[in-house]
Amino acid sequence: MITKSVLHNGIRVISEMMPHSHSVSIGIWVTNGSRNDKSDINGVTHFMEHLLFKGTPTRTALDIAREIDSVGGVLNAFTCREYVCYYAKVLNEALPKAVDLLSDIFLNSLFDPADIEKERNVVFQEIWMLKDNPDSYIHDLFCQNLWKSHPLGMSIIGTEETVGRISRDILLDFRNNRFCAEDIIIAVAGNVVHDDLVELLANHFTEVTPGAYAKNDLIPSYKKQVNLHNKDLEQVHLCLGTKALPQNSPKRYIGYIVNTILGGGISSRLFQEIREKRGLAYSVYSYILSHSDAGTFVVYAGTKKEQLTEVTELILGLMNTLKNVPVTSAEMQFAIAHLKGNLLLSLENTDNRMTKIAKNEIYFDRQISIPEIVSGLERVTANDISELCKELFQDCYLTLELMGKLDDLSITSTSFSL
What we know:
six-stranded mixed beta sheet, alpha+beta, 11 strands, Cytochrome Bc1 Complex, Chain A, domain 1, single chain, 44% helix, five-stranded mixed beta sheet
């Protein structure tokens, strides 16, 4: 059972009772992420995430680490473009300790100048590490260029230049302005009694400022483009993407099935055609990246430079086939069964359930039940698949991002087409 309450200042508390669970997961979700950073201090949301674990008036960084380790728990955080989450997973009896610890770091972190400088260097290392991993970095560059004129195009972790500008005053201002009650969701999943949970949280979060942070609602646009990044690598890494649906689109179930059929697993068309049949890539897959107002459908592959043209043409050909040739009933049912299985398996642990109820609140303002999801998938037809692919797989939306030894490669936006 999922229950929702709202504290007096506007903080939303949502819990799912899992009576047979030995663990409980709790997350403090702030519904503004890196897309809400100012461009000159891009990465401040992510930097804040790091610094909340560095000490409060009553706990040092070592105290924080020992306290969560003493109960065998997990304490961590992650930053995305539209939200950031600070979370803990502990045994049921340790929930009060987890709430006390999370609330302390969330509300009372000191931002000691020495810690800021040390953690700035840690973030620099993270930036350099990303750049040293082309199969990860290519995705970041793809988003930066796809939405280069929009806040969604800003890197989540920022750049050396922007992170270097972030001062203690900026961090304090960030906490005061962006940790507002109406932008905070506390999601909990496990063997918890909702009313007891609300009382516990109210005691810790009563002083959070009411209100909400003013968010940028500019809707991003798409245009055809190609971007080359010359780097001394054995492979050429590519991301080829197009427009996709926002999170709450009524057509989202069609999109899930399209992705599953095209590149969502080892039985997908991309994997079977490019890797299994032709041996042109070790890694090839597709995914959907959706936000509140926009999305992108991306295909990734890593291949030898000499095979790049063939791989690109195969990807485009498979996308065109989905537009023009109806999917068989057997393939549809296989994709639906795959999605249902993944969904149900993911809900066997408390952290995934906690994440699910938080994201439902963020993007739908209500809880989407498993039967509703299954029904949505089962209503999709082969014609729905073709029509959505015709809507999204359009030449004018294509972005091609390439990284590798490209110094003598001649490719422009007219070199490939759907």
